[in-house]
Amino acid sequence: MPTFVVANSKRQEQGPVVSALSDALVEANVEGWSAREIARRGGDRVSHSQLGKYLKPTHPRPGEDVLQVFSDVFRIPMPRLRQLAGLPAGDPVPYEPPAEANRLDSRQRRVVNELIRMLAETKAGDGDVDRDAAPNTRDRRRLSAVDATVPDAVAAHEEEGSIAGEQEESDTP
What we know:
CATH class of the largest domain: Mainly Alpha
Order of helices and strands: EHEHHHHHHHH
CATH topology of the largest domain: 434 Repressor (Amino-terminal Domain)
Number of strands: 2
Shape: elongated
Strand order of the largest sheet: 1-2
Helix content: 40-55%
Radius of gyration: 20 Å
Structural class: mainly alpha
Distance between the termini: 49 Å
CATH architecture of the largest domain: Orthogonal Bundle
Largest sheet: 2 strands, antiparallel
Number of domains: 2
Strand content: under 5%
């Protein structure tokens, strides 16, 4: 289980500070590479200054891009890195939307992306989502900023029974 240390209230707003991840990264860095070398070996997708934060005992919770670089460079599976960072482990295979997603316009894609981000931000850290919980104010604001028609669109799809391809079994011949 990861160790969490809360630094201060400003830092807490950004998420807990994690040390189990840095311990594992330092241990995996058997070559003693600098953050600059890790960034270079990771294709310079993330800056060395950003990566260097995670080689220290206290740091903010990392994003997927940071974890992906460490995964690629140190050959640590993404689910393991997520667990060490106190995040849901997720699936080792990246999510690929169904082919029908190509029919969505840019507004609809932003909505889907935001929904995925909201679902991935579970508090339990184990991937469980409280499906009965109502969206909080922050979630509603985020969705509203993406597309004000989301509640109407979701309600329309629910009435049609077409959310996530779910239809009544009685509808099929």
